[in-house]
């Protein structure tokens, strides 16, 4: 069973330019420094909001999985929605038992906890990220 909405992922050509939009147009003040996940092919930062986060993601490297998405959506677009779960391995087993397609083995995500992605075909066209709730929160 899914828990809180953790973040909404937005793929963009430049996280710095996108962060500026959230600052200038929407008045967001709490935006994290950019991080890199080389093996996942993304640069990222978070726009912190009172109840959630926007995750801005930008392609990193030649084989970035976001490259195709940006080829179809050159200005960027909503890429995934992330919900928290207690136990990622249990969540993966449950998803697969229910016939869903889990796209990866659990791996460390941008929050430092284990994540999986569930294929958009299983959720009305929306790519769903599941992440283990950080233990300190
Ligand atoms: Co995410």
Low-confidence stretches: none
Order of strands across the biggest sheet?
Answer: 2-3-4-1-5-8-7-6
| Sheet having the most strands | 8 strands, mixed
Q: Tell me the overall shape.
A: globular
CATH architecture: Roll
Identify every distinct bound molecule in the structure, by name, code or SMILES.
cobalt (II) ion
Structure description:
The protein is an alpha+beta fold. It has one domain (5-132): 2,3-Dihydroxybiphenyl 1,2-Dioxygenase, domain 1 (Roll). Helices cover 20% and strands 33% of the residues. An 8-stranded mixed beta sheet has the order 2-3-4-1-5-8-7-6. A hairpin with a 5-residue loop joins β6 and β7 (114-118). It is globular, with a radius of gyration of 15 Å. The protein starts with a strand and ends in a 5-residue tail after the last strand. The mean pLDDT is 96. Cobalt (II) ion (CO) binds next to β1 and β5.
Short key terms for the protein model shown above:
binds cobalt (II) ion; eight-stranded mixed beta sheet; 3 helices; alpha+beta; 8 strands; 2,3-Dihydroxybiphenyl 1,2-Dioxygenase, domain 1; 137 residues; single chain
